[in-house]
Amino acid sequence: MKRLPQIDLPALALTLMIGAAGGFLAQSLHLPLALLLGSLVTTGTIAAIGWRPFGRTVLLPPRLRLAFVPVIGVSIGGAFTPAVMAAAPAWWPSLLALFLFLPVSHAIGYAIYRAGGLPRTESFFGAIPGGLIETVQLGEEAGGDPRLLTVLQFLRLIFTIIFVPLIFTILTGGAVGSASGVSLPAAAIPLTLPEIALLLAAGALGFATARALRFPAAIMTGPILFSAVAHATGLVHGVPPAWLVGVTQIVIGCGLGARFAGAERRMLTRAFALAAATSVATLLVAFGFALGLSPLVDEPAPAVFLAFAPGGLAEMSLIALSLQMSVVFVTLHHIARIVLSVFVAKAGARWLSKG
């Protein structure tokens, strides 16, 4: 019987404490996706500079991080409410346009990264406009450097969720998104015991089924699919509680941050500049799509722009909520973007394996 590797429990506890401190600090500053990004930045910085607090290395076993990933999938699936499914047919032009927006944005990002001297595998997966956790995982499986992939995807996400709220804050004169204090409605719905059992089953059975069927990023796509069915049919109305999602974000943030051990500063600096250029280019493409699609879907251009801006699903939806735009419209498009991005990443892994 294969023995599990020994884990430095004090180092693990210290890592989670450092990550939690960074997450709560970011939350107190009203930053977007605070717990995830705050824990990632704090642990990632410590790992990158090689600091050993109390003589311990920042670490988080991959198995522990993966154990929490289905929570995010189940939460995303909670956006597939009966209202979303009923409204979806009227938005077919913009949903169909995602099949053009994603390859255009991806190609631009890939070209920028390659022109900047990044390797092909890292450029391909780093430029995919969606799915930070999934693309890093698939890119690593394809032989890419998980540290560089995490940097590129993290910066893509953070630049977008900084630029977009800033744009709307300037235009409206007030705070938007999570900084405005709003939260998604489903997060406030208490779960009954049967619903808790169904969500647990959605996470476990979704992963097992998706893995058996060889779905891309099965640990994420399986729970999303099963949770989506449960919510769309009205069997479940709420999502995992905020505290569990918060713990999950800290664990995932620490797991990604710990991978920065040994990262070269030169690589980080170059990735920062290239990711900033890619984010600006992608947002310009999203703005162009918004202008063209707005009359076709009977939604204001700012709402379409939010639906296409490749930031966090929760943050873009919260911005729409704070601006009293169509949250359902924005949420559905980001779910579709993430799912399509995962399939693009999976297809890309096959392409790269063929040389």
TrEMBL record:
Annotated keywords: Membrane, Transmembrane, Transmembrane helix
Any one GO BP annotation for this protein:
regulation of gene expression
A cellular component annotation (GO) from this entry: membrane
Question: TM segments?
Answer: 7-27, 33-54, 66-85, 91-113, 154-176, 188-208, 215-236, 242-260, 272-291, 303-323
Q: Which Pfam families match?
A: AbrB (PF05145)
Q: Which NCBIfam families match?
A: Gneg_AbrB_dup (TIGR03082)
Q: Which PANTHER family match?
A: REGULATOR ABRB-RELATED (PTHR38457:SF1)
Q: What is the protein's given name?
A: Ammonia monooxygenase
* Protein species of origin: Paragemmobacter aquarius
